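[job 0417] fold request received: Alkaline phosphatase family protein
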Amino acid sequence: MAGLRLGPLLRYVDWESGSTATVWVEASRPCTVEVRCADGASGASPTFSVAGHHYALVVVEGLTPGSTTAYEVLIGSRRVWPPEDTRLPPSTITTPPAATPAGPGKGAAESAGASSDGVRISFGSCRWAAAPGG
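[job 0417] inference complete; emitting structure tokens
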């Protein structure tokens, strides 16, 4: 049975529509990975293999623009994320407001009064050097 090796990692959110996002995972073997959101949005993708590693890029469709929704990852019908015994808050996808004919919706920085003219970059990792809290 396949398991979650790395991830999930929110890779992309569509700035124009605010209704799709892509989540990356690495599985322990070939399988189909599904992402289900609390608001009903979802997506599924089979893994692809590179040098013996099995990755999936799951496109989540049906997100509500301008919202934040929790999500879970399933391999087969088994939930693999979040872990059953986690004390951490749920993983979430936050989408920008939908674009209008005048251009993209107001982003979080602009809504908070900051300029959104600059480039914003975020990064993350799903690995750690030591177990959390240890």
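[job 0417] notes: The first strand starts at residue 4 and ends at 13. Residues 111-115 have pLDDT under 50 and may be disordered.
[job 0417] exit 0
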